[in-house]
Specification:
With 166 residues, the protein is α+β, with helices and mostly antiparallel strands. The chain is built from 4 helices and 7 strands. The protein is 27% helix and 30% strand. The termini are far apart. It has one domain: Gcn5-related N-acetyltransferase (GNAT) (Aminopeptidase), CATH 3.40.630. Strands 5-6-4-3-2-1-7 form a 7-stranded mixed sheet.
């Protein structure tokens, strides 16, 4: 799928993609959402985990170096919010690790995330409702998406750690 096609995806999935979920309102412990391209492999990823009754936690969002600057982080964020909505979880929170530059915090705030203090790892915690973020992502990515890069999304369940019995 092209970058622009991703923005117009129907609520139930991505054209040309294969984002899977376990059904509305039912969420696995966590999934890694992968953005992949034919013959290029993994472009980027983000971990999406249920958090509380109506939220998802986004962590480890990463776009590989050769593919940065093509707005793939925005597409991963949008697809994560769609996945959360399919799970019945319209809110999202994350910790921003911009290494002190402020650039990442400004980007998230521009998209509609608002600061909520410090997260569990000591970084700024930001939260947002998908209904606030998605229109801003569409506007931002719809005006800037010029790359003909074709990609698909795929979810991979994150194994639950097995704890030894005492």
């Amino acid at each position: 799928m092209t970058a622009l096609q991703s923005l117009g995806s129907p609520p139930g999935g991505s054209p040309g993609g294969s984002v899977s979920s376990t059904g509305r309102g039912v969420a696995p412990m966590a999934v890694d959402l992968l953005c992949e391209a034919p013959e290029r492999g993994l472009l980027g990823r983000v971990r999406v985990s249920p958090s509380g009754p109506d939220a998802i936690h986004l962590s480890n969002l990463l776009v590989r170096e050769p593919f940065r600057g093509r707005d793939l982080g925005g597409y991963l964020l949008a697809e994560s919010l769609r996945l959360g909505a399919r799970w019945g979880r319209p809110r999202a929170w994350l910790e921003a690790d911009d290494q002190g530059s402020g650039r990442l915090l400004r980007w998230y705030r521009k998209l509609g995330f608002h600061p909520m203090g410090e997260g569990p790892h000591g970084r700024p915690r930001l939260e947002a409702h998908a209904s606030r973020v998605m229109p801003r992502l569409r506007a931002l990515l719809g005006t800037r998406a010029t790359s003909p890069l074709r990609f698909t999304f795929r979810t991979v369940p994150v194994p639950t750690p097995v704890r030894p019995t005492p």
